[in-house]
Design a protein that fits this description.
The protein has 3 domains: about 20-65; about 75-215, Triger factor/SurA peptide-binding fold (Orthogonal Bundle), CATH 1.10.4030; about 215-310, no CATH class. The chain is about 60% helix and about 10% strand. By secondary structure, the chain is of the alpha+beta class. The strands form 2 sheets. Strands 3, 4, 5, 6 and 7 form a 5-stranded antiparallel beta sheet that branches. A 3-stranded antiparallel beta sheet has the order 2-1-8.
C-alpha cells in the first residue's frame, strides 16, 4: 500500500490537458520567429524581383518606342493601355497609340494593295514618308482636340455612328456591317472601335476648322450674296472672287455616289437649275455650293464652288515655326 500518491494524481483532467497544451506551444515557439523571418524575406525578395522585372520592361519599352522606333502589334496594344506620349502640341500630349494606329493602317493598306516590298531602299523611303505623315496627322488631331475643348465643341456617339453608316454605304453599295468590317480589317488592319475612333478624330477636326475660320465664313457669305445678285451664275461669281474660292464643273453626268466631299449627293437632291445653300464638305476641308445642271436616276451633272478652310492649317504651321510642337521620337 502506497502511503503517498504522485503529485500528478491530484491534478484534474482539465489541468493535465492545459499543461500538455503549454508544452506543445512552448515547443512551437522555438520555430515561430525563424519562420516569420523566412516569410518576411520571401515577401521582400518577391517585391524586389517584381520591381526589377517591371523596371526592365519599362526600360525595354521605352527603348523600343523612343530609341529604336519599333511599331509592332504588341507595342501598339501596350500604348493603347498606357497613354504614353509621342509629341506635345501647344501643351497637349499626342498619344503614341494614335500615331501608331495611323502609321500601321497606312502601311497595311500599301502592303494589301501592292504586296510586300522587294526593294529595300524604296521600303525605307516609304516607311519614313508614312511615319512622318502619321505623326503630323496625329499632331493635327491632337491640336484639334485641344481647340475643341476650349471652344466647347463635342462630337457625340450618334454623330460617329451616323458617319460610320455613311462610310458603310459609300459608292451606293449597302454593305452588311460584317462585310464592311472585313474590308476595314483587310485594307487597314483596324477594328470597328479603332475605325470609329478615327472617324471621331476627323469629325472633331472638321467642326473646329469650321468654327475658327472667320475668313472662310466671310468668303462664303460673299458667295451667297453674289449668287443672289447674279442670278445663280457660278462662273461669274468664281471670276469675281478669283483664288479665294475653287470653281469646278463635272463636264457631264457622273455617279451620284461619287466621292467628292458630298457634292454629287447634294446635287442629287436638287431639280435642274436649282442650287444648294452653303454646306460643309464631308471631308471637313471647306464649304461647298452646288448647282444642278441635269440628272437621271443614278447620275448628276453640276457645277460647284468651294470655299476652303485655311485658318487651322495656318495656326498649326505657326506652332511648327515657333517651336510650339515638341516631338519625342526622331523619324529618320
Amino acid at each position: 500500500m502506497k502511503l503517498f500518491k504522485k503529485q500528478d494524481d491530484k491534478k484534474t483532467e482539465s489541468e493535465k490537458m492545459e499543461e500538455r497544451r503549454e508544452e506543445v506551444l512552448a515547443t512551437g515557439r522555438k520555430f515561430k520567429y525563424p519562420l516569420q523571418w523566412t516569410k518576411h524575406r520571401v515577401v521582400v525578395n518577391t517585391i524586389l524581383v517584381s520591381g526589377v522585372v517591371v523596371a526592365l520592361l519599362m526600360i525595354g519599352g521605352w527603348l523600343a518606342l523612343y530609341r529604336f522606333g519599333m511599331t509592332d502589334e504588341l507595342l501598339y496594344r501596350v500604348t493603347q493601355i498606357f497613354p504614353v506620349s509621342v509629341a506635345d502640341v501647344d501643351g497637349e500630349k499626342v498619344r503614341f497609340s494614335d500615331y501608331l494606329m495611323l502609321y500601321r493602317s497606312s502601311m497595311t493598306s500599301i502592303e494589301y494593295q501592292a504586296g510586300k516590298f522587294s526593294d529595300e531602299e524604296s521600303e525605307k523611303a516609304l516607311i519614313y514618308q508614312y511615319k512622318r505623315t502619321a505623326l503630323t496627322e496625329a499632331e493635327n488631331y491632337t491640336y484639334a482636340i485641344k481647340l475643341a475643348r476650349e471652344l466647347g465643341i463635342e462630337v457625340t456617339d450618334d454623330e460617329v455612328n451616323a458617319e460610320f453608316e455613311r462610310h458603310r454605304q459609300i459608292g451606293g453599295v449597302d454593305r452588311a456591317e460584317e462585310g464592311f468590317l472585313k474590308i476595314i480589317k483587310d485594307n487597314f488592319g483596324l477594328s470597328k472601335s479603332e475605325y470609329c475612333h478615327l472617324i471621331k478624330l476627323h469629325l472633331i477636326k472638321a467642326k473646329v476648322e469650321a468654327s475658327i475660320d472667320n475668313s472662310a465664313n466671310e468668303i462664303a457669305s460673299k458667295v451667297e450674296k453674289m449668287l443672289l445678285e447674279n442670278g445663280g451664275n457660278y462662273q461669274k461669281v468664281a471670276a469675281g472672287l478669283g483664288e479665294q474660292i475653287q470653281y469646278e464643273e463635272t463636264g457631264g453626268l457622273i455617279s451620284s455616289k461619287n466621292l467628292d466631299g458630298g457634292r454629287a449627293n447634294e446635287a442629287m437632291k436638287l431639280e435642274a437649275g436649282a442650287q444648294s445653300g452653303r454646306f460643309t464638305s464631308v471631308n471637313g476641308d471647306g464649304y461647298y455650293f452646288v448647282k444642278l445642271i441635269e440628272k437621271n436616276e443614278a447620275e448628276v451633272n453640276f457645277v460647284s464652288i468651294k470655299v476652303p478652310f485655311t485658318e487651322f492649317d495656318r495656326r498649326f504651321e505657326d506652332l511648327s515655326t515657333n517651336s510650339g510642337i515638341s516631338e519625342y521620337i526622331s523619324i529618320e
